[in-house]
Structure formats: C-alpha cells, structure tokens
Amino acid sequence: MSHLHQFPEGPFILNALKPSELTSSRVVNHFKWALLKGNKIGHFGTLDPFASGVLMLGISGASKLNDFVHEFLPKTYLALGKLGLKTDSGDITGQIISEKGPIETGHSKKELEDRFREKFLGAYWQVPPAFSAVKYQGKALYKWAREGIVIKKDPVLRHLYSLDVLSIRGPFVLFRVKVSSGTYIRTLFEDMAEFMGQNGTLVSLIRESVGDISIKNSLRPKHWPLKGKKLERVGEVVDNPSLLKMDEVLPFKKAFLSSSIGLDYSNGKKISLENVLKWEDSSLSLPSSNVWILNEEGRLLGLSKIVQNYFLPHFNLPPKKIICS
User: Fold this and answer.
1) C-alpha to C-alpha distance for 134 and 149, rounded to whole angstroms
2) 10 backbone dihedrals φ, ψ, rounded to 5°
3) CA 192 to CA 17: how far, in whole Å?
4) Is-contact 250 72, C-beta < 8 A?
C-alpha cells in the first residue's frame, strides 16, 4: 500500500491502524493537522493506550455515523490475558495489586473454551472499569481513579457473539472475541479469570475488525502523511482500501431516486417510498429501518429511516462541490 497523499471530497472514513504506543487522541491529531482547513475529524470509538488495531476516523462529516456504528457493527479482538495477576486498571499498564505464580488453568483448551462459552456468550452484563472513559458527574472515571476515588457504575448490557480460546501456555490465555460495541475486553478477562477462581489481567489487545472493516486494510503508521505535509483533496474516491465511503462502512438498504425526486429530497421535501426507482438490499445481520438515499447516478444524498411509507432523514449530505486544481 502506498503512502496516503490524497483524500476524497465529502464525508469518508479512514481505517487507521493505531499502534500500542500512541493514544487514540494522538492518532486523530496526526491526521487532523494533515487535512485541509475546514475538514473535521473524529474517531468511532477509542482504543486503550496499550491496545492496537483498527481505529476508524470519520472525516468531513462522516462522524455523523458514530451512533450507528456503535449500534450495528460488532467488534472483534485478539487478546492475551495472564492469570494470577491483578492490576488496578485490568491491564498490564496498571499498578500491580497482587501477583501469584506459577499458575496453570487445570483445563484443556477445549474444556476452557466450552466453559467460557456457556458462561459468557449471549447477553453479558458488564460493570465499566474504574479506569475508563465512561463519565460520572461529567468527568471520566479514569480521572476520578487517578485522584484515588473509585466510582463503581451499574452493570451495562453487552453481547458476546463468539469466543474462541486459541492457546493456553502456563498462566497465559490467548483468545478471540466478537462483541457488541462498548464491551471492555480487559473487564471481560477479569470476569473470565474470576469464573475460574483466579485473578486476571490483560497483557495485550488487538482490535482486528469493526464490522467488515478489517485490520488487513488498516493504514499502517509508516504510510501515514508525514508531519507538516497537507493531504491533497480530490473529487472522486481515492483508490486506497483504507478509505471508505459511508455506505461501505454501514451497508444499510439503499433506495435510488430519480434526479428530480433526489433534488426534492435534498431540499427537504417529504418523499414517499412509491418514488423509489430501485432498491438494493442490506448486508447487515441486524434488522434496521435505516436506508441510504442515492440519486440515479449513484451519488449519496443522505441517510433516512422509513416512517409510515415515507423517508424521514437522519441527515442529508451537502451538494457535490467542484474541486479545482
């Protein structure tokens, strides 16, 4: 993959690979200063500083999809946990509270996998960790924790779609999980260890995918824009697998309108489903009434939901601009 020199006009998503030594905010800032003036940027869910992997960045208005990404796209992680170790943060960067060793699981990989699946797959109520970005009285829990005040929040319903134990070596358990957005994997491993009658701390964490957005196509740091260099904007989508259109990230059902009806839609007029030229089905696993609206040329006009046989817009996209060289 070549260096990123250009980015497309209008909203798009950048699939960046966050290395473990950088915070999510620093990754956002790196690209923020490379963008031309007037292009906003934000991420679709932070990664802990010690973690690496897929960090989706919404650029030029694509951050409007943030809530939809969290609702509809599960996340897949590869994690390595250590039994017998307990830290205040639940990961290897925290202060050690206790450590025992050497520890063996006493189970085969298959036995442990079966037990974990029986216990955790499906609905999973999780207490957000004290060291997290979850807020209490307007301040992140990790800030309270750094002041010596541990705030315990009520459990939150999450969902585990799959859990595979890949290997067990001494106190180390390597596993892969597919979870709903908002699930803390370090807390999950603490719960897994507690289920075994042990303490546990996460040693490493890689976010492998968000929905179909894979780490295989993430833009590696060595291909990021150089500091001090501005990206050039072009009218069409750049041929780069790390750059994605909004409807590629969230493949909702699509409705195509004629040019005249599409203009009416963009101008805020109420559009009936009877005006649709053709439909394109969604590939999402979760059912949804959300629909991408496109004109007959295939240009994205906005995102709507269906209410009483009409399209009710979540948001509309601005008209296409002409990019001058």
Assistant:
1) 14
2) 80, 180
3) 28
4) yes
Residue 174 CA: distances (Å) to CA of 20, 169, 177, 178, 205 = 18, 9, 10, 14, 10
Domains in the chain with CATH codes? 6-63+213-238 (3.30.2350.10), 74-210 (3.30.2350.10), 251-316 (2.30.130.10)
Percent of the chain clearing pLDDT 70 (strictly above): 88
* CB-neighbour burial class of residue 294 (10 A; exposed 0-12, middle 13-18, buried 19+): buried
CA-CA distance, 302 to 129, in Å (whole number)? 37
Rounded Cα distance between 75 and 82, Å, is 22
Please say if the pLDDT value at position 131 is more than 80: no
Q: Which of 181, 245, 242 is nearest to 207 (CA)?
A: 181
Where does 196-315 have alpha helices with state H?
A: 246-249, 259-266
Nearest CA among 207, 198, 299 for reference residue 246: 299
Counting beta carbons within 10 angstroms of the beta carbon of residue 148, is it exposed (0 to 12), middle (13 to 18) or buried (19 or more)? exposed
- Would you say 205 and 176 are in contact if contact means Cβ atoms under 8 Å apart? no
Residue in 48, 67, 91, 212 annotated catalytic: 48
The residue ranking higher by pLDDT, 149 or 74, is: 74
CB 177 within 8 A of CB 167: no
The string of pLDDT tens digits covering residues 148-190 is 655 566 788 999 999 999 999 989 999 999 999 989 999 999 9
pTM for this predicted structure: 0.89
Largest Cα–Cα separation, the chain: 72
- Which long-range contacts link 189-195 to residues 24+ away (Cβ below 8 Å)? 189/79, 189/81, 189/90, 190/90, 191/120, 191/126, 192/81, 192/116, 192/120, 193/81, 193/83, 195/115, 195/116, 195/119, 195/120
- The residue written with tokens 């053709």 in the block is 278
Residue 48 is among the residues annotated as catalytic for this protein: yes
Are 187 and 205 spatial neighbours (Cβ–Cβ below 8 Å)? no
Tell me which residue of 205, 193, 204 sits closest to 100, measured CA to CA: 193
